[in-house]
Amino acid sequence: APVVKAAPVVKPAPVEPPAKGVPLAVTVASGEHQTFRGMGTSIGNWGHGYERLAPKQRQLLAKQLWADLGFPILRLWINTYDCSPKAGVLDLADFRSRYIDSGVVADARANGVTTVLLAPEGLPDYLAEPDGDARKLIADGAEPYADLVASFIIALRDQAGLTIDATGMQNEPNDKDHFSAAQVVAIVKRLRSKLDAAGMNQVLIVAPETSSADQVLYEWLDALHADAEAWKAIAGISSHSYNMAATSEADRRRFGKDYWMTEASDNGPEEAGDALRASSVATRVLNDLNHGVTHWIHFLGFETDDPKDNATRIFSLRSDGTGWTTFRKHAHYRMLSRAFPPGAVLHRCVSSLDGEMTWTYGKKPRITAACARLKDGWSVGLSNYTAPTFSDRGDTGTWSIDQEGYAAVTYAVTVTIAELSSAGDLPVAVTRCNASGPRPETTATMHSGAVTLDITPLETVTLRIVR
Predict the structure, then answer these.
(1) How would you label 398-431 residue by residue, b for 16+ Cβ within 10 Å and e otherwise?
(2) Which phi and psi angles does 453 have, rounded to 5°?
(3) Among 87, 187, 327, 442, which is 20 to 30 Å from 234 by CA?
């Protein structure tokens, strides 16, 4: 007689207990905003630590970084002063060594990467002149600089077999190597024409990639938008998320373009279980999604260990090639990339406490939220960026107090999705990562479009609502 196997016993997920924190309301507006295209990270591999790993270790690291995190975007760096030390010289050797010969690009593509973004960095000496403590692009340098970037992209295709999907114009052109608004406009127009002439009209240009979403970004976006040819040349606007992340002011200046947040991390030391660092970047993901961002990219996926600056990394590679340290932000990114996959359609959220919940200059929001409609339901992300080490004092003249979050509070957050108000009772899958690390999944119930749950300090929570 055939053997009949018993059906496996499936234990129900624990149910969320009644909320007891300080009440706070997050309201999700009706109406679609932007479509998210995915998360990613840049890779420097400046220390060539990837090559020192054994082949099986490289396979595991690539899987943990790209496949496990669901990151479809890889950002690669060219140092213009290395690839072109003299006018007329174009050297691919360093780039090929760090990314192609090392297997970084091939392994990333094998684990789900579909978009390669180029990050031009710095200026060759022949295109730079002093500008106070920094440098700036020479007055007539816009066209030769654009030609250099275009030539590098074309050479990668023709000599290295690597097709770039998108390119920046210059990494943080308002920081160490200064560009003017007029030069930004001229560069994107020239770069577009050079790429099109080479049959590379599929290469997207994103600009201006400023270090913050601030007045400089707004003025440069206004200049780009005022020039019809320049605005047509770019596929998306771009900025970075450090102390001043995406804002409604930047979002309003998209005019239908994508918004690439091409770099975010913290700076300084970090240990493996650092909940504060993890919460910081997770909160900025949610801020940016709630303010129009369509592509979100961490600074360094991995790099050789640096105890003074490991906060820039998701993984720090041991210099002897024996393995790596995984930082807590990995768990938060894993949650968020699953909650907001490519194709998620964002809806704007507002808070009863912090309004638009904008991560910008000054005190940071207590609770930050983002919400998206998926193919089979809805997804919500929430972050409590309060901490025992923070102070409620502000305007003290002390940077660390003025710019950090507020003192630790557990909030009972009620999320209300207007478009589900007539849906009756819906099951909600709840995932969490808090100061103790990832927690087991639990369930809750959404009643007539509203669900309430506690969120503890430095905790990231995602809600999955299936219809």
Answers:
(1) eeeeeebbbeebbbbbbbbbeebeeeeebebbbb
(2) -155, 155
(3) 87
Distances 442 to 382, 428, 457, 461 between C-alpha atoms, Å = 15, 8, 19, 11
Beta bridge mates, 186: none
What is the spatial distance between Cα 162 and Cα 169, in angstroms, rounded to a whole number?
18
**Residue 179, token pair as written in the block:** 């560009």
Using alpha carbons only, give the angle 195, 153, 111 rounded to the nearest 5 degrees.
120
pLDDT value, residue 261:
98
Predicted local confidence at residue 3, as pLDDT:
67
Q: Is residue 438 reached through a cis peptide bond, with omega within 30 degrees of 0 on the bond before it?
A: no
Cα separation, 174 vs 300, in Å, equals 21
Structure tokens at 66: 């790209």
Closest CA to 256 of 35, 24, 28: 35
Who contacts 75 (Cβ-Cβ below 8 Å, separation ≥6)?
40, 41, 42, 43, 116, 117, 118, 119, 262, 263, 297
Query: For each successive 10 residues of the chain (467 residues), what is the average pLDDT?
Result: 66 90 97 97 98 98 98 98 96 98 98 98 97 96 98 98 97 96 98 98 98 98 98 98 98 97 98 97 98 98 98 97 98 98 98 98 97 97 97 88 96 97 97 95 97 98 94
Check residue 140 and give its pLDDT: 97
Q: Which residue has the tokens 């968020």?
A: 336
Strand ranges across the sheet with 128-131: 128-131, 134-137, 177-178
For residue 26, give every residue at least 6 positions away whose Cβ sits within 8 Å of its Cβ, in sequence order, or none: 349, 350, 351, 352, 367, 369, 382, 413, 414, 415, 416
**What would the two tokens of residue 186 be?**
């001229």
